[in-house]
Amino acid sequence: MYRDIEKRAKEILSEMTLKAKIGQVTQINFMGNNVDEVAEKIREYGIGSVILSNSQFAGFVEQESVKLDRMTYFQKLSTEESPNGIPLLIGRDVIHGHNIIFPINLGMAASFDPELIKSVYECIRAEAADDGINWTYSPMLDFCHDPRWGRIVEGQGEDPYLASKMAAAIVRGFQGDDLSTEGVLAACAKHYVGYGASEGGRDYNHTEISDYALQNNYLPAFRGAVNAGVATVMNSFNEINGVPVAASRKALTDILRGQLGFEGFVISDWASIAQLKNHGLAQDNKEAASLAIKAGIDMDMVDNCYFDYMEELVNEGTVSLNELDTAVLRILKIKLKMGLFERPYQKHTEINLEEHAAKAKQACESSFVLLKNSNSLLPLKANTNICIAGPFADLIEEHTGSWALEKGGIEIKSFRAAVTAVAGEKAIIEDFDGLSQHYLIPRNSDVVICALGEPRRVTGEAQSLTSIEISNEQKALLKHLKRSGKPIVGVMFYGRPTALQEVEPYLDAIIYCWHSGSMSTVAAADVIYGKSEPTGRLPVTLPRVTGQIPLYYNALPGARHMNGYYGESGHDILNYNDCEGTPLYPFGYGLSYTGFQYSSVKAECDKLSLEDIKSGASFNISVGVKNTGALDGTEVVQLYIRDSIASRVRPLRELKGFKKLKIKAGEEVRVCFEIGYDELGFYLENGEYTVEKGKFEVFVVSNCLTDNKLEISIL
Ligand code: GLC
Fold it and tell me: Which residue in 13, 110, 462, 552 has a CA-CA distance of 20 to 30 Å to 298?
């Protein structure tokens, strides 16, 4: 079929005027109030795409709701009245939900459950397609080590392997197995590449990324998306080592297409072509347009650089017709692969929002991370006398995270309402009234449940913080509540990782619930009372204090074994004089309502030749995991490697496998992994993948800081 697509695309191209080609590489935005302007441009130029957004900060400002009939009207104009009748791509930021809002992506990465996430995105795509959308700007795959950066909440965490699995799951959830399937959305892997390295966590800032780090940390998630067949890619705003990605042929063509094999088309991020002037790389939008299309940006999002200057650039020979045609062909091929010429319209389908809400609740429970549970305080018994406190007890919209553009779906319950509904009729639910909480002591309660968090508006785009500690008001509240002598459950509704060292001693139990959308509070109440279990594991390190940033598990060893992440190695020189070097909670960490014991790691054979590995042989690794508690429970068994001696410095731990499984109380199961060529190598700075001879430590553990290993060798 695809050979035909190439042929058909060229046939369509051959009938297009220069003006129509320029229309096709242009995206304009529909703001809700500019129907006629959009309609006119579609009719006259055959615009390639419309984005439904009235702001570059689409996540933050009220957006016009999407409606199918309006999208059908635009599509009808494009297919019946535009110069070549080429269908429109109708794009929207469908990031972690459409009507039903799911947990933010950093939260869903905590599920360590790609199959679940794929099924989540099948629900999300159905809702978006039902409103006429056929293109989404998701998954966001920015690798980030700095939680001061607000957009860390959109990403897949600090591990390249987990991120690559999540990337593939989201792409497959949106696109299905075949892009021409009815009701799918074309996905968009963004922001390519390196945006998450913004210096100081300050959005849009400079990024300094070595080729070696680019290949091994920042590219793997995009490899996952490309290998899953992602239709489009969006460039990032940042410059890498002095070259803005929007003008980087090395990034957008040599690596993205040459190394990763990407065959779709690249859309620019909002006005990032025009922003080449801000970078000081272009005099004006005309020069910016020329730089961008030569680098490999095929479609221009809303700044009209291509629309205004491409004709001049082609006529004067600065941009060759072939360079323009290449971009147009890439766009036409995706539209052909999507079957838009045969079936341009999305159509209404029956959406069962209750089912989607149930899926959202499942995603919440799978994303919530139990960080502390002293004396097995949780789960609470139904009639425990409780006191509900904290600023997040009565908030609603704050649970919807940084990208919730539609407001449909279901009514979101406050945490107080959700807990009250579960607590049971006899439970005394003492109440605080607003800020006076600082002065009331919960007298008749046995347990205080304190709902804390950060406003969703301090997360996401252009929302950097200098401190990731919890707010002073919330610290003061916890100190006050501690005086009551009652056990306190901290329910943490945060988007980004938070530094909890100062308040951890006040809390007897801590559940990290992220910003988890429509069902967040209902799921949190069920988890607190044991009607379901929190099964998330941290996809990102929680430092003790802000000053430890950057602090991440896949760190390189350093010259003197000084990396504090894994504990000081006995040297009298410490990472910091004023803080331990270890995290408060490490990558992969999370408790369960039961306990698990691991047997020693076994390998069927602990030596293989490099030739055998290259021919497909692999090490079969296994471990016994026993549920030692009285409750059935879910464990995420994690496999890490340490490539002890190699031609490049390798991280102290690298996640190379994980399995999430439910184990009955008292039962022991054998968990098996196969690791071979794809798991035991790394990329050289030139993008060449290499597996080398030598010793590897293999850990099969419950998180990166636990120790249960054996040694294997490649001979
Ligand atoms: C924004 C964001 C990007 C989003 C795009 C369209 O500036 O950087 O993530 O998809 O513009 O809204």
Answer: 462
Q: How far is CA 350 from CA 127, 231, 356, 408, in A?
A: 9, 26, 12, 15
Low-confidence ranges of the chain (pLDDT < 50): 434
Are the C-beta atoms of residues 147 and 202 closer than 8 Å to each other?
A: no
Please give the single-letter amino acid code of residue 144: C
Rounded CA-CA distance 146/550 in Å is 6
Relative to beta strand 619-627, strand 607-608 is unpaired
- 190 in ligand 1 pocket by Cβ < 6 Å? yes
Cis peptide leading into residue 96 (ω within 30°): no
Nearest to 234 by CA among 265, 275, 273, 199: 265
Nearest to 542 by CA among 601, 598, 492: 492
Task: Kindly give the number of the ligand 1 atom that is closest to the alpha carbon of 271.
Answer: 7
pLDDT of residue 574: 66
Distance CA 696, CA 644 (A): 6
Confirm whether pTM is higher than 0.70: yes
Ligand 1 contacts CB of residue 248 (under 6 A): no
| CB 195 less than 6 A from any atom of ligand 1 | no
Extract the tokens encoding 530.
């044991």
| pLDDT score for 443 | 79
pLDDT value of position 439 = 57
132 is written with which tokens?
């006429």
Plot region of 294 (φ>0 → left; ψ -120 to 50 → alpha; else → beta) = alpha
Is the C-beta atom of 49 inside 6 A of ligand 1?
Answer: no
Kind of pairing, strands 49-52 and 89-92? parallel
Q: Which of 130, 131, 269, 508 is catalytic?
A: 269
How do strand 447-453 and strand 386-389 relate by DSSP bridges? parallel
Cβ of 94 below 6 Å from ligand 1: no
Predicted local confidence at residue 488, as pLDDT: 96
Give residue 306 CA to ligand 1 midpoint distance, Å: 18
- Can you tell me the distance from the alpha carbon of 46 to that of 30, in angstroms, rounded to the nearest whole number? 15
Work out the angle between the directed axes of helices 353-367 and 114-130 (0-180°, nearest 10). Answer: 150
Round to whole Å and give the CA distance between 541 and 539: 7
Please give the number of the atom of ligand 1 that sits closest to the Cα of 301: 6
Distance 57 CA to ligand 1 centre (A): 7
**56 CA to middle of ligand 1, Å?**
6
Report which DSSP code applies to 258: I
Rounded distance between C-alpha atoms, residue 217 and residue 327, angstroms: 29
What 354-357 contacts at long range (C-beta under 8 Å, 24+ apart), as own/partner pairs, is: 355/123, 356/99, 356/100, 356/123, 356/126, 356/127, 356/409, 357/100, 357/409, 357/410, 357/518, 357/519
- Mark whether 707 is an active-site residue: no
Of the candidates 152, 61, 244, the one whose C-alpha atom is nearest the C-alpha of residue 463 is 152
User: Residue 501 and residue 510: Cα distance in Å, rounded?
Assistant: 12
User: CA 245, 251, 257 angle in degrees (round to 5)?
Assistant: 135
59 CA: nearest ligand 1 atom: 12
- Describe the strand order of the beta sheet including 49-52 as a list of residue ranges: 135-136, 89-92, 49-52, 26-30, 300-301
Task: Look at phi and psi of residue 561 and say left if phi exceeds 0, alpha if psi is from -120 to 50, else beta.
Answer: left
CA 104 to chain centroid, in Å, comes to 7
The residues that bridge with 711 in the sheet, in sequence order, are 697
